[in-house]
Amino acid sequence: MKSLVLWLITALLMTASSFSQSSETKLFALKCGKLIDGKSDKVYENVAILINGNEIKDVGTNIPIPAGVDVIDLSNATVLPGLIDSHTHLLLHGGSYDDQLFKESLPFRAILGTVAAKKTLEAGFTTVRDVETEGAMYNDVALRDAINQGHIPGPRIQASTRALSITGGYAPYGYSPDVDVPYGVQVADGIDGVRKAVREQIHFGADWIKIYADSRYRHRMADSLVGSVTFNDEEMKAIVEEAEKVGVHVCAHAYTSEAAQRAIRAGVRSIEHGLYLDDETFRLMRQKGAYWVPTLIAYYAWSQDTTNSPAVKKMVEYTVQRHKETFKRALKSGATIAFGTDMYNPHGDGTKEFALMVEYGMTPMKAIQSATKVAAELLEWQENIGTIEPGKLADVIAVQGDPLKDITVLEHVKFVMKDGKVYKNELSH
To answer: In this structure, is residue 134 part of a structural domain?
Structure first.
């Protein structure tokens, strides 16, 4: 019955395109003090962006602005493409995980998701890849479609629905075997089981399939987060094969090199987190064209939680240090790094990822490009978003100050335009 209801909700909200089209074509211009276009390493000054409806028509220093056209003055700001977060969980919040599964209804979680979507958009993220709902079923698909149809404000979404793991491979843990509890993922075992699960998720609207290539078992405590391998090679290959048949990619949660390498060989498009990846793993990623989405801020924020027990504090702090070392290895290896945060406590704080990327050795420009051009390529939406140039959708943000000198100014986005519509403007009056 639940599946039927969810199917009906999804069917009612389905949109023909992930890219909305403005019903009213309007010509207007943005006057930019500085412009980082996401495409080049240059910073342009005194640039105008001419926008026609939801599309960028022209960009340049000497382009004519027709008389009578509305001009938004961003001459005291640095203008950038709308940011892309490749790893979010809009249906998850910072409260008790088990309470969210056991006590919060699906409608309630969907309502909270609309709040998270608005906060995420106002933080400067005009596009996200939502990498599983953590027990909220297909609510990310409904959220995606409601945003596309203009019912609520939020970023453009690629949805991963429920994620896949094996029996015993995901939370919640510790409950009586006599009690039938919900899980944060869809459990699937064996070749036939994983194929059916992939087909089901795609049927209900998944843009991506997420798998847990390894999983942290709650009852195991060590000096760092422990990842135990889940799916075998044949199951992983079946998942990727089934998804790719209809043009859907697979991303893999993986802490360890063993799990990541098996997932990459199976054909996944991106590795999420990758806390302890070695040089061989990054070499394999380059060979296979896989992306790495490190989500540094999620673990760093956890390490700053004052409620952590001494054992957890030690474990997470050591994990953060090893994650930092992995990031530095990735930079030296030439791995393709796409921006992602895994940040949901609170939503809207994902831009803090930039400061860690720069602190760990990435240049500010490359960090910005990881959240614009590179992330758009990961999502295969580079023809529409990720850079500011003619023909792209008008996704534009602005900050005060120079993010190349102080990357933390990106934590205070003052102007947000998505699809040619202004959702936030604290600069032009």
So the answer is: no
Residue 157 domain-assigned (yes or no): no
pLDDT at 19: 53
Kindly state whether residue 405 falls inside one of the protein's structural domains. Answer: yes
pLDDT in tens, 10-34: 443 443 445 544 445 789 999 999 9
Give the structural domain span for 419: 27-81+387-425
CA torsion, points 168, 172, 177, 179, in degrees to nearest 10? -140
> Using one digit for the tens of pLDDT, what is the confidence trace for 125-138?
999 999 999 999 99
Phi then psi dihedrals of residue 207, to 5 deg: -90, -25
Calculate the alpha carbon distances from 27 to 69, 126, 420 in Å.
6, 21, 10
> 393: which DSSP letter?
B
- Residues of the chain by 3-state class (helix, strand, coil), percent to 5: 35, 20, 45
List all residues 6 or more positions away from 395 whose beta carbon is below 8 Å from its beta carbon.
Answer: 81, 82, 126, 127, 385, 417, 418, 419
Q: Which residues contact 260 (CB under 8 A, 6 or more apart)?
A: 213, 252, 254, 271, 274, 277, 281, 285
Mean pLDDT score, 62-89: 95
The residue assigned the tokens 């990541």 is 260
What is the mean predicted confidence (pLDDT) over 55-60? 97
pLDDT single digits (tens) 277-296: 999 999 999 999 999 999 99
Q: How far is CA 313 from CA 40, 138, 296, 297, 366, in A?
A: 41, 34, 16, 16, 31
Cα separation, 138 vs 203, in Å, equals 11
Distance between CA atoms of residues 344 and 364, nearest Å: 24
Nearest alpha carbon to residue 394 among 367, 421, 365, 369: 421
pTM exceeds 0.90:
yes
Per the domain annotation, does 252 fall within a domain? no
CA-wise closest residue to 151 among 8, 17, 13, 55 = 13
Distance CA 264, CA 285 (A): 7
CATH number reported for the structural domain that contains residue 55 in this entry: 2.30.40.10
How many angstroms separate the first and last alpha carbons of the chain?
A: 52
C-alpha distances in angstroms, 127 versus 139, 180, 182?
17, 36, 29
Are residues 419 and 22 in contact, defined by beta-carbon separation less than 8 angstroms? yes
Sequence length of the chain is 429
Helix/strand/coil for 418 = strand
